[in-house]
Every structure is written in C-alpha cells, then in structure tokens.
Amino acid sequence: MAATVTDYCTKHSNDVSNNMMELWDWTCDVFEDADKMSSPLQGATMKFLAEWQQPKRGWWNVQSPKPCSELMVAVLEIGCYTGYSALAWYESTVSTQAEIITLELDPKMIAASRRTFDKYQLNDRVKLLEGPAQDSIKKLTGEFDIIFVDANKEGYEGYVKQILDKKLLSPKGFIMCDNVFARGMTVSTDANPGLPAKVRPYWTENGKALRRFNTFCKNDPRIDSVLLPLYDGVTLIKWKPSTAAPNGVNGTGGFVKLVERPQLDQNTNGI
Q1: What pLDDT does 260 receive?
Q2: pLDDT value at position 56?
Q3: Which of 2, 95, 103, 111 lies most in the core, judged by the most C-beta atoms within 10 Å?
Q4: 15, 250 contact by CB (below 8 A)
C-alpha cells in the first residue's frame, strides 16, 4: 500500500527535472545501496521548500597561498551521496544564486558527487567539503537558511548539537533530518518484518541511535521539532521564537569562514 500511495503522490506532485531523473536512474543502476538516495517525490519536496524559503545569495573567495574561504551561504547538507539532493537545492535556488555546501566522507561517493557536479555544471555554487562531517562543521561560522542531514545515523545527534551550539541555523531557517525511522527500526525492531536479513543489523543499530536523537530533539529547550511520517521519517527543526538570534549573531554578518578545508580521511568508512 505504501508504494501505491507514493506512486500516486509522485504522479500528482511537481515533476523533478530531466537532469534529476537522469541522475536518479543512473544512481539506481550503479549503486547497490541506492535506496539511501532521496526519492523523486522527496526531491520535489526539497525544491518546493527551497523555493518557498528563498535562501540568500552567497559568494566564494579562495585566498592564496593559505587555503581560506569566505562566503555567505544558504544551504548546508551533511551527506552528499551521488549529489541528487545538491542538484535539487541548486535548481531551486537559481533566482537567488544561493551557495550550497555539502559534506561527504566516503571516497566512492565523493567521486560520484564530483561526477554529478561536473556533468550538470553545478561547481559555480556547490562546494563539496571532504572528510568527517564533525570536523567540517567545526570550520564553519555564520548562518544557513536550510540544513539537510542525511548521513551516518549515529552522528545525527552530534551534528545537530554542533549546529545549534555554533548557531549555524539562521533565525528563520530549518533543519531537515532524513531517514529518522531507519526502515522502521526506530519505532520497533518488529516494525518491518520484510527488511532483508543482510541489512537488518545495520538498520537495527541505526534505529537505536535515532531513538536517542528523537529524544534529544524532543527535550532540547532551544528548538521546536516535529517528526513526520513521510518517506522513511523526516524531522523538521527550527529555533524556538524565544531562542532565535538576530542575523550576524556570530559577528560575521552572515558570512561563513572556513579556516582550512577538511581533508579526506581515507581510513574511515563512509555512510
């Protein structure tokens, strides 16, 4: 029934672009774990939200000889996979020319993402930072209007804590966390009897981590959150009205500074 409903919703929602559909098909053909990628319906949802949010325009300047960058950015995503969501953010921010920063650890997915950025000519506004996400987040200051979290599930709580502690989320911005149901394992280990035995241990452990994350979101006094029964579970997070700080809270006027680019850790497994 769920597949039937998804198909119906997809057919009666905005279509994704030909480029997004081409990338989605290619990813499904090439990668065995392509189910980690957002669906076309979710891609349409991302574009809808970004067009409504109207993220700000940014700029990128690399100083020499020391690697150093300054930019006013709008979108941050933690976990890039093959670049499908980055393509959605890119297409939906043409009018504002917003900058998109995406973080990825897995060398295989870094290569796939760079293929996407080259093929669809996204490099003017999409910047890929390689390495552990927690290290990349440490380098950032300023504010983002949209933050998309779709990475290693045991890292969700830590990533969101970092984002909130560093006030990387703009006063009117939102965080969207994907796969919060962990194929149903977050709700109950009995929730998905059809889950293949090969991936059940992986998603069971993810479910444990995401239960802790859900408790964190519910109890953190700085934020409002809502966990929605969409896709594989989506959590939306915003500042409480009493917590939201004015623009330029970090003294950068909305500019993000990366003191140095994170380096890829070749010895660490990806998502």
Answers
A1: 40
A2: 65
A3: 103
A4: no
Tell me, what amino acid is at 53?
Q
When the pLDDT of each residue in the chain is averaged and rounded to a whole number, the result is 85
Q: Tell me, what DSSP letter sits at residue 259? A: S
Confirm if 76 and 98 have CB atoms less than 8 A apart: no
Taking the C-alpha atoms of residue 44 and residue 168, their distance in angstroms, rounded to an integer, is 25
| pLDDT tens for each residue of 131-160 | 999 999 999 977 899 999 999 999 999 999
Hey, how many other C-beta atoms are within 10 angstroms of the C-beta on 200?
15
Cα 37 to Cα 78, 141, 162, 172, 185: the distances in Å are 13, 28, 24, 27, 18
What secondary structure does DSSP assign to 149-203, as a single string? E-S-GGGHHHHHHHHHHTT-EEEEEEEEE--TTGGGTTT-TTS-TTS-TTTHHHH
- Percent helix, strand, coil in the chain, to 5, is 40, 20, 40
In this prediction the pTM is 0.85
Whether cis (ω within 30° of 0) applies to the bond prior to 65 is yes
Dihedrals φ, ψ of 234, to 5°? -130, 130
Query: Is pLDDT of 250 > 80?
Result: no
Identify which of 83, 239, 105 has the alpha carbon closest to the alpha carbon of residue 160.
Answer: 239
Please say whether the beta carbons of 103 and 65 come within 8 A: no
Q: Are 132 and 266 in contact (CB under 8 A)?
A: no
Q: Is residue 43 helix, strand or coil?
A: helix
